[in-house]
Specification:
This protein has 175 residues and is an alpha+beta fold. The protein has one domain (23-169). It has 2 helices and 8 strands; from the N terminus they run αβββββαβββ. The protein has helices spanning 3-18, 106-113, and strands spanning 26-37, 43-45, 75-76, 82-83, 91-98, 133-140, 147-148, 162-169. The longest helix is centred in the N-terminal third of the chain and has 16 residues, at 3-18. The radius of gyration is 19 Å and the shape is globular. The relative contact order is 0.19.
């Protein structure tokens, strides 16, 4: 058997084991960046410690599970899809793959993750808005400057958009 034939056979076997035959009507992605900034301006980025929306990872709700493909929730990510994925910072690529046409929101993603989302508290009570720190939500499309956004949980995720959530001294904004 020639190496080319062997390569084709191996490729077909790998494709067949990956492809489930399920069809989808939504197949896109968006990006999420979560930054915690201290009083000195030092930033640390929140990266999930395990997959979100994938079996074996965080699946805190099954509300839209039947919309997903291959057993995944229609909104999902994993630590391997987070980090310097675009060359611009510590982002998480959120895959949106669904068998139904639906406008999925940032709130839907946080619900499957199982953590709170909002201007008063995001992630845990350790990060609540107070007189020193606050949460800011900003969005950017197609490389445009970040602009403030107050939609939080109702924000519809848009293809290739970057959503920035920053917990920082109250003097910082989206700039």
């Amino acid at each position: 058997m020639t190496p080319v034939v062997l390569g084709v056979i191996v490729g077909v076997v790998i494709y067949a084991s990956w492809y489930s035959g399920e069809t989808y009507v939504v197949n896109t992605h968006t990006y999420l960046m979560v930054a915690i900034v201290d009083q000195k301006g030092n930033t640390r980025y929140v990266i999930p410690d395990k997959a979100i929306g994938i079996p074996g990872g965080y699946i805190a709700t099954t509300q839209y599970l039947s919309d997903g493909v291959n057993g995944n929730y229609p909104l999902w990510t994993s630590p391997s899809l987070c980090g310097n994925v675009t060359g611009t910072g510590d982002l998480c690529l959120i895959r949106i793959v669904s068998k139904v046409q639906r406008s999925y929101t940032l709130g839907d993603f946080f619900k499957v993750w199982g953590v709170p989302l909002g201007p008063a508290e995001t992630f845990s009570p350790s990060f609540i808005t107070n007189s020193t720190f606050s949460w800011t939500m900003c969005t950017s499309n197609s490389g445009s400057p970040y602009v403030p956004n107050d939609d939080w949980g109702s924000h519809v995720l848009v293809s290739t958009e970057v959503v920035l959530l920053a917990y920082s001294p109250t003097t910082l904004g989206c700039a």
